[in-house]
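Quick one: structure for this chain?
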Amino acid sequence: MEQLLDRFLHYLIVEKGLSRNTIDAYSHGLNRFLGYLRKKGIQEISGVGKFDIRAFLLALKKQGLSTKTVVRNLVAIRTFFRFLLGEGILKVNPAEEVESPKMAKTLPEILTLKDVEQLLEQPDSKTPIGIRDRAMLELLYATGMRVSELTRLPINQISLEGGYVLVSGKGSKERIIPFGSEAMKWVALYLKTARERLAKGKETSFLFINRSGGGMSRQRFWRNIKTYGRIAGIRKRITPHLLRHSFASHLLERGADLRSVQTMLGHVDISTTQIYTHVTGERLKKIHQRYHPRG
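Got it. Here's what it folds into:
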């Protein structure tokens, strides 16, 4: 079974072009599944039935894993069995008949415009680090990029003249995202006054670099934004993804169409983007209840 898993992961890398994070998630989930099968005495993939898969998902739930994690494991198993079916290794797919656990719909939290402004103003613009962090925050909110896309953005994929970035997203899919004058101003200031001082003569292709002249890590930026949120007195749990949520919601609140926001976020399925229409809908309901004379 391990050889079949290796073939499947190779297929995902070479033919599907999935990201390293996605490959790792599939590998982790499927190795856990194969380990469960071995403990149950199942040595051949052809001997796996739908009841084995259901029992595995139930075991994950009993371990205290979240419904979201259980669903991710089922997605990996389904994709694995579809591959085996397509390769002619199996004649039936036992995972197709396994129902996905119902997930409670949770609306993403967003920042208010006032919160965003307070957050953006926290970095010390008198220091190279502060200028860099302000530029990163401005660009993140202006484009809705994922934090991994921001920290790994090559310097030659941003155009200050054109006001856009070329982003390589999940599955190596590229998209162009425009940004406005504030982000443009701070990125230009960073390039003019701070980046060379941080680089200390080192050559790197990344736009944003750390104090040693190397690329910024996601973890470092996450810690930075958390610190700025605390200093700003924002009570919400501040993460880079919170700015991405806020970017999408604020655009839709001001009349942007769903397809355009989907393109900028890099969502393959528009249903992923539609969650933000519920966020703006909930906000409108609260406004109505608060201000309507018969609310």
